[in-house]
Design goal:
Blueprint (H helix, E strand, L loop, with lengths): L13 E2 L6 H6 L1 H9 L10 E4 L14 H5 L16 H9 L3 H13 L13 H30 L2 E6 L4 E6 L8 E5 L7 E7 L5 E5 L1 H4 L4 E5 L23 E5 L10 E4 L5 E4 L4 E2 L4 E3 L3 E8 L5 H6 L8 H38 L16 H15 L6 H19 L14 E2 L11 E6 L6 E12 L2 E2 L4 E7 L4 E7 H10 L6 H11 L4 E3 L10 E3 L2 E4 L2 E4 L22 E2 L18 H17 L4 H13 L14 E3 L3 H12 L2 E6 L3 E6 L3 E6 L2 E6 L4 E8 L2 E8 L1 H5 L4 H5 L1 H19 L3 E10 L1 H16 L5 H12 L4 E12 L3 H10 L3 E5 L4 H10 L8 E4 L3 H5 L9 E5 L4 H5 L3 H9 L2 E4 L4 H15 L2 E6 L5 H6 L2 E5 L6 H5 L2 E3 L4 H40 L11 H11 L2 H9 L5 H6 L15 H25 L7 H23 L5 H24 L13 H6 L2 H27 L7 H20 L1
Helix pairs in contact: 4-6, 6-11, 9-10, 9-30, 11-30, 11-32, 13-16, 20-21, 22-30, 30-32, 30-34, 30-35, 32-36, 34-35, 34-38, 35-36, 35-38
Membrane topology: Multi-pass membrane protein
Subcellular location: Endomembrane system; Membrane
Enzyme class: translocase
């Protein structure tokens, strides 16, 4: 029997629940309506929701569960268009917010009215239709990419307890329901807000990292419910919660991270109160805990993370708003021109009719209208058709292509590529590249955005001696990985003499570093659930199934070798049905069976080198049915701590010879270099809190009681022993320590002071008795009582020294921030970290200069001590409590923040970040860019004008919600100062040129009509008129908008000051728009009257005259564009030259082959040929071109020679102010 004959198939362990059938959905409609009208919830308070665990209902399909019907699912969406079905309608409504689109649809409709006899007819809808379809495709593509990223998150897997199978099964996040009992392993991300029921720690303690949620890098301690602690601990068997018949009452979804309440009922008398420490929110990561298990309370959009994120908004640039305004002005010009010429047309016809003698033919074809109103209306509509291109349709086509092209160039910039993560820049929103050139405020996260969140021990200062000058970098294997540490060679030599001298400050300093922490030494954590389980003759691991065919197949081949391919086979067939657990080959078609066999053999060959170990491991498991998981001996001990600071000090102590080996409940085992093993007693730990700003441990050593303390410099210095502080030696140590503190802080490093004191046994006994009293009694202000007790014991300290810790910045961060500040951009850092941490990073990253004044705003009272006029420059520090002042619009706060060079905001929640972003945009009237890398940054990213996400260690939520995605913070310099400058310059120049081009086209026709009986008869060829804005003069401005540069990349990178010119929107101001309108008027007058006087009193026909006008317009437009181009490339050169020939050849070929079938009045046969061969024709074109462009040419020449002549909007305001003052002074005299 061959291997293929014995292969069997068992489905994957992946659990894909059934969806309700169509009939079930139809039958369930009445109950759904009833539920809406008559809610049947047994929760008595509207402020609560009741949850019953899903594992209690094993005979009900998941779509029939009460929790499925009552609460939202766990599927998330960051798309701008929630439904693909409604996408066309929603997108159409969005596009109709653009005034130009409404106008184009109106103009296209006019072309279909037979009475107006328009040439284009229904074909007039094609251009606007193409634009709107292109815009829809672009929006759909953007939304599709967001949908793909959402799918990656929604398809992530988590273990959910299946009550019917009595075991955990892997399920996709989007299928998780409220009431599910889920299992998560170390370093996994929480898929929903869950209530802790069990953990691997026997005391029910769980550590989680919440940086995705609140930006804080320190670990948070969570606790299992009190009644469930007995179920905690690592066991060999899967925990079965079916016996827990509980009901959970919890508060309704709320975005407040500190607000959660409820209770768990076990019986009528037994219950637990749900506290904040019992709940872990979506987006957090499990740390220092092998596994946790809990019940889902909130899913999807009801979770704290998503409630704080808000919705993804449709973003439009300020240039779009200005373009809308200029479009309205163009429409106003159009209405004025049409109204003016309609009046003149009616007057002209009336006057001509009265002067005309009876019997003479009227040389005009006039429509007979019953009323004057109808005549006026028709005339206005005909003039609108003549001037319909005055509002440039080509502008919107061109600009959309320019934006897409510029976005594409960004993604291909090698300077925005991050090699380590193989990540290039991504553009997720295509319609706001010009906003990158107008950013005035950059709001940045700290952890993971500016820093690597890696703490490095950089040296120390002990007993008045500085040991940081001669530090050298060493790599120490601190069990988990190689760690970079800086240690002093001088200190290492002294340690050989004072390594265990109890009277030496160096000894106590290092003991303090090694034991004053909560770090534990553990084995490398590995959740045994990932090792799979045995069912029958198979070992199921994750979504793969391993088979043992040893009982059915002879393991020996003819030549005596083992046939290992027959022993191990693998199947990864996934079933979507939750009711089928087994199957066989015979139940599958031959093609599938053959495919599975081939795949099985391939995998078997790949593991052939390790087949013996695998075979014996599986065989051993199958021989012992009582074992349900693979037990693997754990190796590689690791350090685990609540904060990176603690780990840094422990690893620093190891580098100096004091290695932590193991932590017991009441002691710590150390290995001291040159001495041996040392067991240090730990009597009590006084944990760190933000009020005390310090941490302490009490240790009993050789009959003495030591209190070791570490903390912020002010919290230690203010509690030193007076005897020590007043002694000569103490004064010297304090002085030198403060000097080191200043030096370390000036380098932007974190600093901690270490101190100790010797306690008496009476003090210790009294301290323990007081703590027992506080813990045993139900005191309302328990925390305050403990704080007071800790402060009382942490006094009369003796200063040991100072440690220097570097919070490693990302490469290039200081240089980038300095460049941004030189560019006139205000940089704000918003972090959830504490004050000291935030301030140290602000200094190290060059956000704060130590020589610049700092202003702190905590409350309204602080404003009284701040002078009305603060000398610039200055920096501002704003805590979370100051956000309310900003939100309430406190004028003094806004004034201080607006003029600040940089701002540091600490203890910020996600909603605080969003409030600050929105307030800066609203009150400061400036463009804001927000950048971050975690889920806690999503609210400010979506609120800002431009959101940038970094693909860091905190997940992909920020990237998914952002407009742009970068690999590192330093790339922001290239993105803003180079690409931002180019995008803003190119798009603004293109917009102004396109407005000018179409205005010129219409103004020439306007002057012509006064010499043509003020009629609506147009001399322009109708087909050329339709094609001119898009074809004949469309590609040149498109290439100009894509390729032109006002500065090279090197100039922009080395001279950030250039960026300042963009901040006042000087390149797209009303002044420039009016100047372009005036330029178009002048050029139209030059073109028309040069042509008119040249052909005056001749027999030239209308089409020949129109051809001359169109050629002059084309030449003027082209050479006008050539004057604008600052960076000539071969593409721009060929593009402009080639269309000269295209223009001329079109008219020659068109007038040769045109016939009466085109229905053009007085068909222009051979007009192009004869005109092109005429000397007068070319003389008129050249003369009109020179005359039209002369003012622009000389103005450009003068400004280039004398730059002072170029006035900005700011200069104009100053001039107006001075003129106003002079005028008022003159009037007063």
């Amino acid at each position: 029997m061959s291997n293929e004959d014995i292969i069997s198939i068992t489905p994957s362990t992946k659990w894909v629940p059934k969806n309700p059938s169509f009939i079930y959905r139809i039958l369930n409609i009445p109950s759904t309506i009833k539920k809406i009208i008559f809610p049947d919830s047994i929760v008595y308070e509207k402020s609560q929701r009741e949850i019953e665990p899903n594992y209690l209902y094993t005979d009900i399909p998941r779509y029939g569960l009460v929790n499925y019907k009552k609460y939202t699912n766990n599927k998330i969406s960051t798309t701008k268009y929630p439904s693909l079905i409604l996408f066309p309608f929603q997108n159409l409504l969005l596009q109709l917010k653009i005034y130009a689109n409404i106008y184009f649809l109106f103009a296209a409709t006019l072309n279909t009215i037979p009475l107006l006899e328009a040439y284009s007819g229904w074909k007039a809808f094609l251009p606007i239709g193409i634009i709107m379809i292109f815009e829809s495709i672009k929006d759909f593509f953007e939304d599709y990419r967001r949908r793909k990223n959402d799918k990656k998150v929604n398809k992530a897997l988590v273990y959910v307890f299946d009550g019917s199978k009595k075991r955990f099964r892997k399920m996709e996040w989007e299928n998780v329901l409220v009431g599910d009992f889920i299992h998560l392993s170390i370093n996994e991300t929480i898929p929903a807000d869950i209530l802790l029921m069990r953990s691997s720690d026997v005391e029910g303690t769980v550590y989680v990292e919440t940086s995705n949620l609140d930006g804080e890098s320190n670990l948070k301690e969570k606790k299992v419910l009190g009644s469930c602690i007995e179920y905690c601990g690592e066991t060999e068997h899967v925990f079965n919660p079916s016996f827990l018949n509980i009901s959970i009452f919890c508060s309704q979804p709320d975005k407040d991270l500190n607000k959660i309440s409820g209770k768990v009922l076990y019986s009528q008398e037994k219950f637990d109160i749900i506290k904040r420490e019992n709940v872990i929110y979506r987006g957090c990561q499990i740390k220092n805990t092998t596994f946790i298990e809990g019940i889902v309370l909130y899913t999807g959009k009801d979770t704290k993370a998503l409630l704080n994120n808000g919705i993804v908004k449709h973003k439009r640039s300020s240039l779009d708003s200005s373009t809308n305004k200029y479009t309205l002005i163009c429409i106003g010009i159009l209405i004025c021109m049409c109204t003016f010429e309609t009046i003149f047309s009616i007057v002209f016809q009336s006057e001509y009719s009265r002067k005309q003698q009876p019997g003479l033919d009227v040389p005009f074809v006039l429509y007979y209208n019953r009323t004057m109103i109808v005549k006026i209306l028709l005339t206005i509509l005909e003039f609108i058709l003549d001037y319909q291109v005055l509002v440039p349709l080509s502008l919107y086509i061109t600009i959309e292509f320019v934006k897409v092209a510029l976005s594409y160039f960004m993604t291909k910039d090698i300077n925005l590529y991050y090699e380590e993560s193989d990540k290039s820049m991504e553009v997720k929103t295509l319609n706001i590249p010009e906003e990158l050139g107008q950013i005035k405020y950059v709001l940045s996260d700290k952890t993971g955005t500016l820093t690597e969140n890696k703490m490095i021990f950089r040296g120390c200062h002990i007993n008045g001696i500085d040991y940081s000058k001669d530090c050298v970098k060493v790599l120490t294997k601190c069990m988990d990985n190689e760690t970079e540490v800086y240690r002093s060679e001088k200190l290492m030599k002294e340690l050989t003499e004072k390594v265990h001298d109890e009277n030496s400050p160096v000894y106590h300093f290092l003991i303090n570093m090694a034991i004053c922490n909560t770090v534990v030494v553990t084995k490398k954590r590995e959740d045994t659930i990932e090792r799979g389980y045995v069912q029958g003759n198979t070992l199921q691991v994750a979504n793969a199934v391993f088979y043992n065919h040893g009982n059915d197949v002879n393991e020996e081949t003819i030549d005596g070798r083992r046939n290992d391919d027959a022993i191990v086979e693998i199947s990864s067939i996934s079933h979507s049905s939750e009711d089928h657990e087994t199957g066989s080959v015979s139940s599958f078609p031959d093609k599938i069976r053959t495919s599975v066999r081939r795949f099985s053999r391939k995998v078997s060959n790949n593991i052939k080198h390790n087949r013996k170990k695998l075979r014996y491991a599986i065989k051993g498991i199958l021989d012992n049915d009582s074992r349900s998981k693979i037990a693997i001996k754990r190796k590689n001990d690791v350090y685990e701590g609540e904060s990176p600071d603690e780990l840094c000090l422990v690893k620093g102590a190891k580098a100096l010879g004091f290695t932590m080996l193991k932590r017991h409940r009441c002691s710590i085992d150390l290995s001291v270099s040159g001495y041996g093993y040392l067991s240090v007693n730990i009597t009590k730990i006084l944990k760190f809190d933000s009020n005390r700003k310090r941490m302490s441990v009490i240790s009993l050593q050789k009959g003495k009681i030591y209190l070791y303390t570490k903390g912020a410099d002010d919290s230690i210095m203010n509690n030193l022993c007076k005897t020590f502080s007043s002694s000569e030696e103490g004064k010297k140590i304090i002085k030198e320590s403060k000097k080191s503190l200043k030096e370390f802080s000036s380098c932007g490093r974190r600093t901690l002071c270490l101190a100790y004191r010797i306690m008496t046994f009476e003090e210790l006994n009294k301290f323990n008795d007081d703590i027992d009293d506080i813990e045993s009694n139900c005191i309302e202000d328990k925390d305050k009582e403990l704080l007071s007790l800790y402060n009382e014991i942490e006094k009369d300290l003796i200063l040991l020294g100072v440690v220097s810790i570097e919070d490693r910045l990302q490469d290039g961060v200081p240089e980038t921030i300095v460049a941004l500040k030189n560019a006139g951009i205000h940089v704000w850092v918003l972090t959830g970290d504490k004050y000291e941490t935030a301030l140290n990073v602000a200094r190290s990253c060059s956000l704060f200069d130590i020589n610049i004044k700092q202003v702190e705003i905590n409350c309204l009272e602080d404003l009284e001590s701040i002078p009305v006029r603060i000398p610039c420059p200055y920096n501002v520090i704003l805590p979370s409590s100051g956000v309310k002042l900003l939100k309430d619009g406190e004028e003094n706060v806004i004034r201080i923040l607006k003029n600040a060079s940089s701002v540091l905001c600490y203890r910020m929640t996600p909603s605080d970040k969003a409030i600050i972003t929105q307030t800066v945009m609203k009150k400061f009237k400036s463009k804001v860019l927000s950048i971050g890398d975690g889920a806690n940054d999503v609210p400010m990213i979506t609120s800002a004008n431009v959101g940038v996400g970094l693909g860091g260690q905190e997940g992909m939520q920020a990237v998914m919600a952002a407009d742009y995605s970068l690999g590192r913070f330093k790339f922001l310099r290239n993105l803003l100062l180079i690409h931002g400058q180019w995008c803003y310059y190119r798009i603004t120049e293109s917009l102004l040129y396109l407005f000018y081009k179409n205005l010129l086209y219409c103004f020439v026709l306007f002057w012509y009509n006064f010499y043509n009986g003020v009629s609506t008869m147009c001399p322009y060829d109708p087909y050329y008129s339709m094609l001119y804005p898009i074809i004949f003069s469309g590609l040149q401005p498109l290439m100009y908008g894509i390729l032109d540069q006002n500065y090279s990349a090197k100039e922009l990178y080395n001279n950030p000051e250039i960026y300042k010119k963009n901040l006042e929107n000087d390149l797209y101001s009303m002044k420039l728009f009016v100047l372009n309108v005036l330029d178009a008027i002048w050029q139209s007058l030059a073109i028309f009257y040069c042509t008119y006087f040249a052909y005056d009193d001749t027999t030239i026909d209308m089409w020949s005259f129109g051809y001359c006008l169109l050629t002059s317009i084309f030449f003027v437009n082209t050479f006008h564009l050539c004057l604008l181009i600052k960076n000539w490339t071969w593409i721009l050169f060929i593009c402009n030259i080639s269309f000269f020939f295209v223009h001329v050849m079109y008219f020659i070929l068109y007038t040769i082959f045109v016939s009466a079938s085109t229905q053009i009045i007085d068909t222009p046969i051979y007009v192009g040929v004869y005109s092109t061969m005429s000397f007068t024709f070319w003389a008129v074109v050249i003369l009109s071109t020179i005359t039209a462009l002369m003012p622009r040419f000389y103005i450009k020449l003068l400004i280039k020679r004398y730059p002072l002549l170029e006035l900005t909007d700011k200069d104009v305001k100053i001039i107006k102010l001075k003129l106003s003052k002079s005028f008022n002074r003159f009037r007063s005299q």
